[in-house]
Amino acid sequence: MTAPKNDSLPPERELKVGIGALVETRTFDVPDGDAPPWDATTKFAVVGADVDRQDGIAKASGRAKYAYDITFPGLLQAVILRSKIARGKVATIDLEPARGMPGVAAVIGLKDAGKKVRFVGDEIAAVCAPTIDQCRDALERIVVTYEQEPHTVDFLQSSDAPVVDDSGELVDPWSEDGDLDKALAAATVAHTGTYRTEVQTHGSMETHGAVAKWSGDDLDLWMSTQATFGVRGEIAQAMRAADVKCTGVTIHAEFVGGGFGSKFTAGAEGRAVALLARAANAPVKLMLDRYEDHTCAGNRPAALMQFRAGLDQDGVITAWDQRTFGGCGHNGQGGGVAIPDHFLRKAARRKDRMHKDLATDADPGRPMRAPGHPQGFFGAELFLDELAAAAGLDPLVLRQKNDPQAIRQQQYTLGAERFGYAKARADAAANNAQKGVRILRGVGVASARWGNLGNDGRGRDGSGGHSALCRIHQDGSVEARSGAQDIGTGLKTVLAILTAEELGIRAEQVRATAGHTSDPSGPAAGGSTTTPSLAPAIRHAAFLCRQQLASKVADHLGVAATEVVFADGKIGTAAKSLTFADACKLIGPNPLEARGERFPNYKGDPFERGVCGLQFAEVEVDSWTGLVRVVRMLAIQDCGIVLAKKPAESQVLGAMIQGIGFALHEQRIMDRQSGRMLNGDFLRYKVPGAVDIPPMDVIMQSVANGHTNCSAAGLGEAPSCAAAASIANAVFHAASVPLRHLPITPDKVLKALSQRKAK
Amino acid sequence: MKEFTYVLPRSLPEAEAAAKKPGATLKAAGIDLVDRMKERQFQPTEVVNLLLLQPDLGGITADADGSMRIGALATLAQIAASKDFAAEGYAALREAAGEAATPQVRNRATAAGNVLQQARCWYLRSSELHCLHGKDGPSCLAQVGDNRYHSVLGYHDCVRVHPSNLAPALLALDCEYTTQLAGKQQRRRVADLFPLEPKAQLEEHTLLPGEIVIAFHVKAQPKSARSAYRESREKLSFDWATTAAAARVVMDGGVIQEASLVLAAVAPVPLPRPDAAKLLIGQKPSDELFHRVALRAFADARPLSHNAYKVQVGQAIVREVLHATTR
Fold it and tell me: Where are the domains of chain B?
């Protein structure tokens, strides 16, 4: 990159923001001291290039140590005793028999007599011993009696569930709403439909849990977490509450095997392992098994959604109404749904929100990749396709007519061309019109949206805030460090890339480390905020180190510091320069070191503080067996300035794969009688495997958004909105009847096809 | 898992002696067994590992009478890739073995282990639930619970389905098996390996305690024979069949002379359908004919509360497997 002149920046800066033909000049208030912001005209050497994931080889070769892999001499294992009933109270509990069992080093109660039991799997007690089998033998000796109460694990069987008919439609009349009712009555085309999704579990590769080790009164925890600083506080507070002296808690999460929103809390397992390690006076490991992870560590709640809407003669959506229900766990929370309301700018809508969360006697929901969005986008986007069909409009055209977002408007054109949308739709229609055709084909499209571009992490008084550390050593090695976690999404690669870009070196020259709370603090990995929250601070840290090094080099070469350029591994001017390694020799025994500041987001709201996306899917439906196969997919995703291209594409691919699972396979299946999950493994809880994943194409769009010095945006959520919806729309196109209840399993497909024949 | 004694026999007689002990179980690759032990669903006191006998009990070899011998410990991958089974008449075996589980599993899992693995019923396989099938419960929990993957045919008081891919193919080819018990070898038809009335209280196979399957025998197939195995699933990678069918057909002059049809994953045992197969004899292949055969194969279906779809899917798989044998 070219050297910015950073001596006296005017506070107001003109930046080119946008992408391609949409680039425009806007003025931003850039905070004093910030690195000069990048924009659409910036030329990059490392940012956006095909840089490999920093820890890719370590992970692929097994050298990366996850919490699950951490071990110490004398390490004990721990297991939690869990409730076998879904609802009631602990009547009596006797832990004593467990204490005398071979190997048992500590036993702790997690639920006393008289306490409520809220689901199968609720924590009762925990033990630690040298082997897991010794723990389980000991747990078998603990005597628990329950006062059992009737339970329900199906949200549509709960006492305040709405009435649905045999076809799954909500049947209660809609309450009146004057303007909305008028708009619906005036519509040229009107439509209504009810949509449903099942509980999806997170299914992270690494289950929840931690290894705890005390040194005196200091506690170190190697935890599979997506919120290092959050769980640090949680554990410290839990120790206080338990009257355990604890002078410090350090969390280590250098490698985390996924979280998807389920690992913001240390959980009962995190608290238990810390207490067991103290009681046993030994390091203890407590990792959940796969069944526990499916049943006790969160999930995406089920949803039931009814929509009705009207179009005018131009295909503009003029009225929209919805009522939604969440199928939640025992806390009756977290089941809200979000729909693509960018299509509804001209629609009359109800004033009050009609949503109700319904509780069941099951594990509570936790955030999962764009909470509420995959459910709501599936329902609403499929409803839009039905609406388009009713109006005789192509579904892509209906979206183009109703979408005010400029970036997505050009995505429609680009995507339709790249996917061969029109031809694929026509070919599918021609195929499906053949008499007796077995394999039906369909093509669908759906939109994506996420509206969070990160935060500065500061308190109300402006104190605190996210930070990052950069160090340049005399030997030429460069460190970039963050105490926030990289849950597999690529923070370490972002650290390396931003630092390398700023210092004019290769990303491989930077040693990036994340996940130790001894390093500068950062946000939890949620809401697509990690990268946009931390990237500006990471860049700023490198920027400050660069200034220090520039001044040393300037002195040495006898040039002005403002003339010093960092590029291609050299530092200096066109006439005189040093290699990066030689320049570093000017550093003393103490490294150059700087903590980057996370300045507040710049004022101004270009692109409505969010990102846009669009996904296409083509499917084959076997009309004999009901099997749906995704044949190919395309995602176009805006992501601020794309910093780390490979991990970014990987995030989108992951969202598409997870979307295939949500659309076609994944569902928590509960036994009503016992309240237990029947498919709490990866044999019957079905996730897509290699053969189920079709060729998938990703187009990343780099959009200078003018929100921070590096225009970063996050990617966890947006691509998750569209994937299942685009597949459901393709299935609708293939089957010519909508499949309104996810997952779209063969039994549902065959039923729908037979109903189509009956019609 | 609970503590157990690990026995590594060096010979078949040693294995037999070890297998006779109360509480002993035989282990081949352990794909199913070790999982069940880890989850404490099954707690043998002695585990007799047969894998050291793989040189004798493994591999695929030709016998003097022209039949092929599949060692009990031959792997699914070996069967799927065997040149001895390259001819169309053996295709059902190759396809059944080649579609099971994943490449990693197929490289370890054995022929006998695949045929003798325990039913995959999620009530049966929960250590917390007590059903009628070997678990001292009062009733079949699947019958009144979620039975989407359970039987539609041939069940009594337990609606589990037989999970083996290989078993229907072995039955369709009218294969035999040899066991060793008390120093004596006995050769029987594979059909005899499964109970006639698959009641909950019975074992899933007819082997006596200590009896060891040592081989399967596949008759030499005439050039005009063709066979196939097809299954339906909910996804394409690593899934259990929701229905499956194996068929064998011998054609002459475009007319079907011999036919056999075996269903799997729809009943507690792999289920030959001779009445349906008979409809094929003397006929020319056609989709209309196969459709009739498929309807006949499921004519006595009694679907449960959640699995009516399996009848329709199963019929489709029968059509498909018959097309595959006559294409």
Answer: 55-116+161-218, 225-326
One DSSP character per residue, A533-560 reads HHHHHHHHHHHHHHHHHHHHHHHHHTS-
Q: What is the ipTM of this complex?
A: 0.96
Distance CA(A684)–CA(A678), nearest Å, equals: 8
Beta-carbon separation of A671 and B312 below 8 A:
no
Q: What is the pLDDT of residues A124-136, one digit of tens each?
A: 999 999 999 999 9
- Beta-sheet pairing, A628-638 with A577-579: unpaired
pLDDT at B174 over 80: yes
Chain A residues with beta carbon closer than 8 angstroms to that of B323? none
pLDDT per position as a tens digit, A341-361: 999 999 999 988 899 999 999
Answer whether B40 sits within 8 Å of A751, measured CB to CB: no
Cα A83 to Cα A551: distance, rounded to the nearest angstrom: 65
Between chains, do B122 and A684 touch, taking CB under 8 Å as contact? yes
> Residue B242: its chain A contacts at CB < 8 A?
746
Q: How confident is the model at residue B2 (pLDDT cuts 50, 70, 90)?
A: confident
Fold of the domain built from segment(s) B55-116+161-218: 3.30.465
Express each pLDDT in A479-510 by its tens digit: 999 999 999 999 999 999 999 999 999 999 99
Band (pLDDT 50/70/90 cuts) for residue A2 is very low
Q: Tokens for B9?
A: 């026999």
pLDDT for A3 equals 45
User: Nearest residue of A to residue B233 by CA position?
Assistant: A627
Top residue of B3, B32, B309, B322 to mutate, by most chain A CBs within 10 Å, is B309
CA A35 – CA A709 distance, rounded (Å): 6
B225-326 CATH choice from 3.30.1490.20, 3.40.50.300, 2.60.40.230, 3.30.390.50: 3.30.390.50
Chain B residue with Cα closest to A684: B239
SS (H, E, C) A70-116: CCCCCCEEEEEEECCCCCEEEEEEECHHHHCCCCCCEEEECCCCCCE
Residue pointed to by tokens 């199928």: A327
Which residues in chain B have their CB less than 8 angstroms from residue A624's CB?
A: 313, 316, 319-320
Looking at residue B1, its pLDDT comes to 87
Q: Which residues contact B129 (CB under 8 A, 6 or more apart)?
A: A671, A674, A676, B123, B135, B137, B141
Nearest Cα to Cα of residue B129 among A721, A291, A638, A359: A291
- Which residues have CB under 8 Å from A426's CB, separation 6+? none
3-state secondary structure A35-81: CCCCCCCCCCCCCCCCCCCCCHHHHHCCCCCCHHHCCCCCCEEEEEE
Look at A686 and B313 and tell me if their CB atoms are within 8 Å: no
What domains can be seen in chain A, in order of their start residue? Answer: 374-452+606-758 (3.30.365.10), 456-597 (3.30.365.10)
Question: Chain centroid to CA B88: how far?
Answer: 20
Instruction: Give yes or no for a contact between A482 and A496, defined as CB atoms under 8 angstroms apart.
Output: no
Which helix H or strand E contains A133, and what residues bound it? helix A132-141
Q: Cα(A742)–Cα(A375) distance, rounded to whole angstroms? A: 9
Share of chain A above pLDDT 70, in %: 98
pLDDT exceeds 60 at position A5: no
CA atoms of A170 and B55, how far apart (whole Å): 64
pLDDT at A436 over 70: yes
Question: Which tokens go with B312?
Answer: 């329709």
Chain B residues whose CB is inside 8 A of the A747 CB are 148, 307-309
The pair of structure tokens assigned to A206 is: 């690494």
Distance set, CA B234 to CA A296, A332, A685 (Å):
26, 31, 11
- Dump pLDDT digits (tens) for A13-23: 899 999 999 99
